[in-house]
Amino acid sequence: MICGSANEPVALAPRVAAVPPVLTMVSAWSGYMMGLMIPSRTTGDLLAGMWQLVSTVLGAAGRKLVWDHESGIGQKRLTCETAAFAGTPGCRIVQVKVRSPEHKGVVERCHDFLEKSFEPGRSFTSPTDFNTQLTGWLVGANRRVLRRVGTRPEELIQADTAAMCRLPPLAPVTGFTARIRLGRDYYVRVLGNDYSVDPSFIGRMVDVHGGLDQVVVTCEGQVAARHARSWTTRGTVTDPAHRARAAELRQAHDQARVERARVIPPGAHLVAVPDLGGYDQMFGVPNLDTPSRPTLAVVT
Fold first, then answer.
1. What is the bridge-based pairing of β-strands 295-299 and 269-273?
2. Same domain, 128 and 192
3. 220 confidence band (pLDDT: 50, 70, 90)
4. What digits encode the pLDDT tens for the residues 169-212?
5. Three-class SS state of 153
6. Cα–Cα dist 5/186, whole Å
7. Does 226 lie in the same domain as 99?
8. Does residue 108 form part of some domain?
């Protein structure tokens, strides 16, 4: 299985990354093509994209996944997340030598085919729309006869997947994961964006997971926040329910502070304290709004 990612010159709706990457995977023997637009080229998004294509389209994992020196996969060696991902289905990730495009020419031709046959004349309103159109187009593209094999890729893919590794019972860990203590601002940062969390969990440890479509925050198995994944950067995503809950907690805190201030501790008594504004009146200082009057203070 040959894998690659390319920044396609696709024009999407505003507030979407200007050049979102497209992950492509091609079966080296049958020539069966798969593709998916992902939010970024980070390790978590690349692994999540690979797993989505492998699990939903093929239903099997290639015994060998060939990559170039993509920074999200690894430079001189694989990243820890990539190595763990490969170990789950029992496949092997191989990185080709630097400046050797002939080792992954199959996927390079796929990129050229997408750029010249799929994108021209199309418009996309969102990444979801792009993936929907790409999925429909790939159905027809995999029905064309390949000259090097003399048949259609869709006719060979079943024999191809039969020789692949079976999917594991548990999915590998993909996407962005973190465990942090929720601060007083009740926001968590995921890949350049801030997402609100139920302020009831302030001060507690929460688990954050950012997938291709959603950002989910949990605390001891309880969902504290669920947001649609933002494809922008330096943005803020706020749930109105979280803002309303924060206002309720703030009001309850202020009321409790006032109630504590009204409580006179045992053994204390009240004494009159003169208002210092009386000195202003004595010396004729103008613009006094209220007359001088004594106040009460608690003395223990």
1. antiparallel
2. no
3. very high
4. 999 999 999 999 999 999 999 999 999 999 999 999 999 999 99
5. helix
6. 35
7. no
8. yes
